[in-house]
Design a protein that fits this description.
The chain has four helices and nine strands, in the order βββαβββββααβα. It is α+β, with helices and mostly antiparallel strands. It has a six-stranded antiparallel sheet. Strands 4-6-7 form a three-stranded antiparallel sheet, with no helix packed on it.
């Protein structure tokens, strides 16, 4: 299981890479593995300011649809344009080309998990 040390995680299986006052967000390797083949991503919240735990979109796999939750508060400033044509990037490269959104952070909160804590959460 790939759990990069330089990222933060949520109990809902999103990852966060903080870059100054912005954050890049996606779903974890564990989450994409549980979902299976991802066929569609719907994120229509670009330009909106959302609070931590708000739903920012959905991801559809062959067998299920899952909500995507904001790991921190902020304004969604970019949605990964590659996911519209290639949602499978989330399966093949969840921490790289498969990122989902970029956020201008308004409140980082204190609920993000370290890689070690996330590993414990998923039973690794």
């Amino acid at each position: 299981m790939n759990i990069p040390e330089n990222l933060r995680y949520t109990e809902d299986h999103e990852w966060v890479r903080i870059e100054g006052d912005e954050a890049v967000i996606g779903i974890t390797d564990f989450a994409q593995g549980e979902l299976g083949d991802i066929v569609y991503v719907e994120i229509e919240t670009e330009g909106e300011s959302l609070n931590s735990t708000d739903v920012f979109g959905t991801v559809e796999a062959v067998k299920t649809v899952s909500d995507l939750f904001m790991p921190l508060s902020g304004e969604i400033i970019e949605v990964n344009p590659k996911l519209e044509a290639n949602p499978e990037l989330i399966n093949s490269d969840p921490y790289g080309e498969g990122w989902m959104i970029k956020v201008k952070i308004s409140d980082q909160g204190d609920s993000l998990l370290s890689a070690e804590s996330y590993q414990e959460l998923i039973g690794g």
